[in-house]
């Protein structure tokens, strides 16, 4: 039996205790309903959505008389309707059911998860390298490629063109956003990615797991950052509608990288 609670800033007004099906059943349901296998830092999972009803009326009995009551109501202290459609919004939820917890590794490339608002500019976004201390993370150089999924690529713009990628540490290197910049400017044959190779200017060895800088204020030290602009609210809304098959939580995660 599982009892779910939100974080410390949210209080549950009502909850239901329930049992979750076994893994074989989960896999069968995922196949039957075409659920997409996704992953995050905790492993691979299927997302089973739970949604609010649409506003409307439902029949009920009042002393032998059939009456129709609103599915949703929100009234003030005097019982006056504050207008549900104009003042209240619902957010869908669901279950992330993990079917294969990822194996832990000594050295991890970790992309940030940040929250942004429509129209934000000069947003720092990057990645860090984190070690559990069980192996020596010293290196003479490291490289990689960050790929922006289609929906996220449409959400952003490089603040300062192809120079919008830079190191926040003492590391030197090559940071190539040319392909992402071409994609953002309409070249759909280009790959929406950022490629990098980083090293010390004097070619000495270093430990990148100790060099991160927390640019976003979330305790996550990044060794490489990009400066991005976020699309306006109309564009964000249009993207959410275009990818309407996603749940509200999935949209939030993808749109905020």
Radius of gyration using CA atoms only:
23 Å
- Strand content bin: 25-35%
Overall, the morphology is elongated
Spatial separation of the terminal alpha carbons: 32 Å
Sheet having the most strands = 5 strands, antiparallel
Number of helical elements: 6
Low-confidence stretches: 1-9, 247-257
Arithmetic mean of pLDDT:
77
Number of strands: 13
Along the chain, the helix and strand elements come as HEEEEHEEEEHEEEHEEHH
Helix content: 10-25%
Structural class: alpha+beta
Describe this structure in words.
This protein is an alpha+beta fold and 257 residues long. Helices cover 17% and strands 30% of the residues. It has six helices and 13 strands. Strands 6, 7, 9, 10 and 13 form a five-stranded antiparallel beta sheet that branches. It has a three-stranded antiparallel beta sheet with strand order 1-2-5, with helices on one face. A three-stranded antiparallel beta sheet has the order 8-12-11. Strand 1 and strand 2 form a beta hairpin. The protein starts with 22 loop residues before the first helix and ends with a helix. The N terminus and C terminus are likely disordered.
């Amino acid at each position: 039996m599982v009892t779910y609670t939100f974080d410390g800033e949210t209080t549950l007004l009502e909850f239901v205790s329930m049992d979750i099906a076994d893994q074989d059943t989960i896999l069968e349901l995922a196949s039957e309903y075409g659920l997409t296998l996704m992953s995050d830092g905790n492993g691979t999972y299927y997302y089973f959505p739970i949604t609010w009803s649409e506003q409307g009326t439902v029949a009920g009995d009042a002393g032998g008389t059939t009456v129709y009551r609103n599915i949703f109501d929100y009234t003030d202290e005097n019982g006056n309707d504050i207008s549900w459609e104009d003042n209240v919004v619902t957010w869908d939820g669901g279950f992330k059911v993990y079917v294969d917890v990822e194996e832990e590794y000594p050295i991890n490339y970790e992309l940030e998860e940040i929250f942004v608002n429509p129209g934000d500019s000069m947003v720092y976004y990057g990645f860090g390298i984190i070690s559990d201390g069980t192996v020596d993370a010293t290196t003479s150089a490291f490289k990689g490629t960050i790929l922006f999924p289609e929906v996220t690529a449409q959400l952003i713009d490089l603040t300062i063109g192809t120079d919008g990628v830079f190191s926040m540490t003492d590391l030197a290197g090559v940071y190539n956003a040319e392909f992402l910049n071409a994609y953002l400017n309409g070249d759909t044959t280009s790959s929406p990615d950022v490629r990098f190779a980083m090293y010390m200017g004097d070619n000495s060895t270093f430990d990148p797991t100790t060099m991160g800088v927390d640019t976003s204020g979330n305790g996550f030290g990044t060794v490489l950052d990009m400066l991005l602009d976020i699309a306006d609210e109309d564009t964000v809304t249009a993207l959410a509608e275009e990818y309407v098959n996603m749940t509200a939580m999935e949209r939030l995660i993808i749109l905020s990288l």
